[in-house]
Amino acid sequence: xxxxxxxxxxxxxxxxxxxxxxxxxxxxxxxxxxxxxxxxxxxxxxxxxxxxxxxxxxxxxxxxxxxxxxxxxxxxxxxxxxxxxxxxxxxxxxxxxxxxxxxxxxxxxxxxxxxxxxxxxxxxxxxxxxxxxxxxxxxxxxxxxxxxxxxxxxxxxxxxxxxxxxxxxxxxxxxxxxxxxxxxxx
Length: 186
Description:
- By secondary structure, the chain is mainly alpha-helical.
- The chain has 6 helices and 2 strands, in the order H-H-H-H-H-E-E-H.
- It starts with 35 loop residues before the first helix and ends in a 5-residue tail after the last helix.
C-alpha cells in the first residue's frame, strides 16, 4: 500500500461510529441481561459480532493483508486464531486429552492466513464450529464458581478470559481494518 487510505465510516449520525445506532445489530433497546452469566455471554456475543462486522465487505486478499512487518497479524489470522483459542479453552474443562491444534505449530493460525476465498470460508466455518462447541461445553457447567479440569480453573475465569480475548482482538481488528481500507469506528 503506497498511500494511506482516506479515513471513512458508514455512520452518518456520529462520525466516530462504525454504523449508525439504528443499524447496529449489537444495540438492544431493552434492559440489560440479568445476572453474571447472562452479562458475560452478552459481552462475548457483542465482541464476536464486532469481529465479524470488522471483516464484512472485504475480499480474501484484504482479509489476509498483514498489518506491518514484521507482524503476521491480519483479520483472517485473527479469525483463525480465535477458532484455535476456542478449541484450546475446551481443553481446560476436563482432564482428558486435548484436541489437536487446527492449524498446527505456534503462530500457524496467522502464518497460514492467505488470500484464498476457500481459506476464508473455511476459517469462518471453523470459528463458528469451535465457538458452538465451546459454548456447549461451558453450558454443562452453570456454576461460575465451579472448579474444572486438571488445573481447577473456575468457570468464571474461563468466561472472563474469553471476553478479554475477543475484546483485545477487536481492538486489533479496528487497526487492521483501517489499514486495509481506512474504515474507522467503534
